[in-house]
Design a protein that fits this description.
203 residues; mainly alpha; 0% strand; globular
Length: 203
Amino acid sequence: MSEFQAYLQLGFTHITDSLGYDHILFIMALCTVYTLIDWKKVIVLVTAFTIGHSITLALSTLGFVNVNPDWIELLIPVTIVITAVLNFFYVVPKASFSQSEKASKVRYPLALFFGLIHGLGFSNYLRSLLGKEADIVSPLLGFNVGLELGQLIIVFIILSIAFFMIEILRVQRLSWIHILSGIIVGMSLSLIINNEFLHSLLA
């Protein structure tokens, strides 16, 4: 296995790891208001997130940006809560489910901005893997590609479940959005409450 392939696998494993589910929760929060029918909109939204985390992943791993990882671990669940809460303000169009609809434009710049924060989180993990390795370009590229592959699979699963629930089981779309968003908010608030760095700040 080449170095590129090894780090690709590590990137894929990192974002799909159920034990470190914060990034999965964020992708879920981004996609909650959509199903497979809206795949074009989701691609634009996820691309904004990808651009954001790719920028800070590269800058931080190359040593151009250095942020206290404790702050990043605290801010990541905060970005999830904000994104999920925005879903409660989503207005389901009166037209049929397959009709085009106007998504809130604030979701795209927020996905880009929050992607910058998540990229710093990815870089902390990647730098711990690299150690004193001299050449980091190939590992950086492989890790980022692995992240994207894992991210696309997560998106496909979320959209497929939403399509099944809404189109097949006929669950009310707004009910689905609110239930899933509520679960995401609850799990993210748990991460914030149990954050040791937050406890040290409040002590």
